[in-house]
Amino acid sequence: MEQVLKTAFPFIVISVGILLAFQGVLMIVAYTVLAERKVLGWIQGRIGPNRVGPWGVLQPFADLLKFIFKEDLVPDKSTKFVYFLAPMVALTCALLPIVVYPFGPRIADPLSWLVPYVSGIAYLGDAVVWIAEQAKNMPLTIARIDVGVLFVLGITSVGVYGIALAGWSSNSKYSLMGGLRSSAQMISYELAMGASVIGAVMLAGTLDLNGIIQAQTQSPFKWFIIPQFIGFIVFLIAAFAETNRVPFDLPEAETELVAGFHTEYSALKFALFFMAEYVNMFTVSVMCTVLFLGGWYVPGLSYLFEVGSIPYALVSHVAFIGKICAFLFLYIWIRGTLPRFRFDQLMNFGWKFLLPVAIANVILTIVVVFLLNR
User: Fold this and answer.
1) Where are the domains positioned within the chain?
2) In whole angstroms, what separates CA 346 from the centre of its chain?
3) Which of 38, 176, 210, 220 is deepest in the core (most CB within 10 A)?
């Protein structure tokens, strides 16, 4: 029994971590949709959803049931296999980066409080003591890899294939135009986004997301948003373009392309694209928080709680989620405020302004880091 427990323990921990992380992200996504409808309603002088549950809090679940029970229509002349594959590609590429996100600091001894209550119970007590020993210095991340930044950028860049394939496989000119627009847009703004990340990586000296946070934990003035303010602005603008959000929502452009690449999608397949968009919003919000706002780090928290304790980790995690929610609110605010670009304006802005500014920021950072390290 003990040998089985020792063998299965790592797999159990990883499985529980994946389940909790994915469930938590999907709940944040669901209520981001509700928050968007509420905030846009207030901006436009409306009430917003308020019928399903108190203050409309059950509206996301009502929307899910609606998608499940709607008729699933498939175009006769579509390429069936690719048509069904595209939404799964989009959602999978949006969800995969979650495994490398650092949701909080390490917890030194998370199960020590449980040991006195079970230590006298035969078999169970010994197992809990062993698990408590194994759980020491438990990180609040599923998988830590040395090139976490490259992993996130690489996986999210593949997500454009889901949109492009959806536009092509639907055999609709509106969908195809939306897919082509999205491909051109993501290629254009991905270069600026990648260049804006380089400055933060150079200052931290690592591509590990945890290492980047650790480099910003000395003081709030070490947050990379201060020395890399230009990179932060470039990343933020490119993030809006990468996630196809206003004012860069040309691939969907409801008033021009009848919802663009997912015109021919309905029911759950449409819901998958819908979820992928909001998960991508969460992804870039996490990256922005980690790269420029210190991740889960809260200045002065170590004076209130011992580093590595459960209260310290809990407050740090709540602060991390709060920073992410601030970026998600910015997404909603911008949607309710700014008009859409024309497509030629969007491409000119990306290639002729944003990319040169990102490259100039990289060159300036190289010069400053070189001078400081002499």
Assistant:
1) 2-105+140-372
2) 23
3) 210
- Looking at residue 177, its pLDDT comes to 81
Lookup: tokens for 48 = 């917003």
Tell me the backbone φ, ψ of residue 107, rounded to 5 degrees.
-105, 125
Q: What is the rounded CA–CA span in Å between residue 323 and residue 291?
A: 12
pLDDT at 363: 95
- How do residues 218-239 score in pLDDT, each as one tens digit? 777 789 999 999 999 999 999 9
**Cα atoms in the Cβ-side hemisphere of radius 13 Å centred on 148:** 25
Compute φ and ψ for 223, nearest 5 degrees.
Answer: -55, 135
pLDDT given at position 362 = 95
What's residue 242's pLDDT? 87
Threshold 0.85, pTM exceeds = yes
Of the candidates 320, 291, 316, which has an alpha carbon nearest to the alpha carbon of residue 227?
291
Which segments in the chain show pLDDT lower than 70?
1-6, 111-130, 132, 135, 251-259
Instruction: Report phi then psi at 182, rounded to 5.
Output: -65, -40
- CA dist 51 and 239 (Å) reads 33
Residue where the block lists tokens 């009502």 = 62
